[in-house]
Amino acid sequence: MDAKVIPLVKEEEKSKENLPQTDLTPKAIVKALDKYVIGQEKAKKAVAIALRNRWRRQRVREDLREEIMPNNIILIGPTGVGKTEIARRLAKLSQAPFIKVEASKFTEVGYVGRDVDAMVRDLMGIAVSMVRTEKSEEVEEKAKDLAEDRLLDLLLPQSPQSAPSGPEGERVKQIHRTRENLRKMLRGGGLDDRMVEIEVQRQMFPFVEILPVTGSEDLEMNLQEMFSGVLPKKKKTRKVTVKEAHRILSQEEAEKLIDMDETIAEAKKRTENSGIIFLDEIDKIVAMDSRSGPDVSRGGVQRDLLPLVEGTNVLTKHGFVKTDHILFIAAGAFHQAKPSDLIPELQGRFPIRVELKSLTKEDFQRILVEPKNALLKQYTALLETEGVSVEFTPDAVDEIAYFAFQVNEGTEDIGARRLQTIMTTLLEEILFSLPDSRRKKILINKKKVRDTLKEIVEDQDLSRYIL
Ligand SMILES: Nc1ncnc2c1ncn2[C@@H]1O[C@H](COP(=O)(O)OP(=O)(O)OP(=O)(O)O)[C@@H](O)[C@H]1O
Ligand SMILES: [Mg+2]
Asked: 115: which residues sit within 8 A by CB, 6+ positions away?
């Protein structure tokens, strides 16, 4: 069955359609998430349904479509149990414009910092680069051909000296032949390392910024963008290899072939209809105590968030973006605060609450080995680069999981993150001694795990520092 999911997703990556997600049924989504996240079935199900509902909404007749609101979700659960992981994997899968932001990074409008509208601007920016990437893939072949011709012009300037003598027709043919020969060499890679001078435009790619930055940088970006349209693009000569030149010129040609207005219109459509904003650490903006200073602004952030979640227009550098149908997935540990401490209007906008469970020892066992990016797989691959094959016996895995669970109980529960600290401690000696120790095979069994970790685990003070 696995084999069924993978090609579907791959196909979608290539698909040029607006709604490439036909095969991403709730079951297929959960199955794909299963490859990375152990357990947490309820959460996986909820996000899968929400994602599919977006797709369904697109197919509802228009007057009703506008009425269908997204199923905004709050994922509630202790730290390190997979909340962010689910969101991350969902993003990869969904092919929808997706952004993960930390609610605690935002400040109320009027205060220094980043205002909440920035997340919509960033989402739109991501959609634009997404569509642009797709479009440049579409024109890639053509752009490469055009770049090739420009490159041949550069490599074969038609100066009078280089032109062969003889009757006119013969000369033209000769030039043509030389050019075609050169083209063959170029394609065969024979000219790759030769140097060539090309003119490049300074601001070839005003890449949309994705990283969260402070408010002032935002402004700077906007100004830069504004001026980039007004000021003539500066040209600069650079000496590069033929290979590099071909890449640069292909990019330039691709840019020319892409209709930016169309790109922006498509990006806007995708942002508005299938955009997903993952609001992490939502519990951190609960105003805990109205007397303490910074909390005043937390409540403010909630109030600022409200219009976004309810639906408003946000001005981005590509025009207004409507947020009515953007899907919000919020997550938080809610250790101290409860979801009901959020302002009521906001609570109402997150109708779906899903609790993620604390991970058990059995979960840890599976997390160590099953996910595609499982820790043991990672370390095995790392050691392989030193020519060492490492093997973990099943009872060793068992023991690692047991210790992780123990330490979480005894000190602080940091969920699956504990596996990281346990593994680094367990493997420290091996990682340090390679490649000098010239070992080719390492077996890690229960005894080895015990011998390395027992003392640390049993001494709570020690484990507090080391693990
Ligand atoms: N259920 C799980 N299955 C597989 N791996 C997991 C699971 N839960 C956590 N992990 C691993 O632990 C790491 C931390 O998990 P994650 O970032 O999802 O925590 P979180 O729930 O968002 O916690 P926090 O509240 O601290 O943000 C992840 O990188 C992931 O590899
Ligand atoms: Mg998280």
From this structure: 106, 107, 108, 109, 215, 304
Q: Which protein residues are within 6 Å of ligand 1, measured from CB?
A: 37-40, 77, 79-85, 333, 367, 371, 415-417
Q: What distance in angstroms lies between residue 83's CA and the mean position of ligand 1's atoms?
A: 6
Phi, psi angles (nearest 5°) of residue 195: -90, 150
Strand partners of residue 73:
329, 352
Q: List the domain boundaries for the chain.
A: 2-130+274-355, 140-257, 361-466
Say how many Å lie between the CA of residue 6 and the centre of ligand 2: 26
Q: Tell me the whole-structure pTM to 2 decimals.
A: 0.76
The tens digit of pLDDT for each residue in 108-140 reads: 666 666 788 999 999 999 999 999 999 989 999
Instruction: Look at the domain 2-130+274-355 and name its fold.
Output: Rossmann fold (3.40.50)
Q: Tell me, what DSSP letter sits at residue 356?
A: P
Q: Tens digits of per-residue pLDDT, 77-119? A: 999 999 999 988 988 888 889 999 988 888 766 666 678 899 9
1.10.3720.10, 3.40.50.450, 1.10.8.60, 3.40.250.10: which CATH number matches 361-466? 1.10.8.60
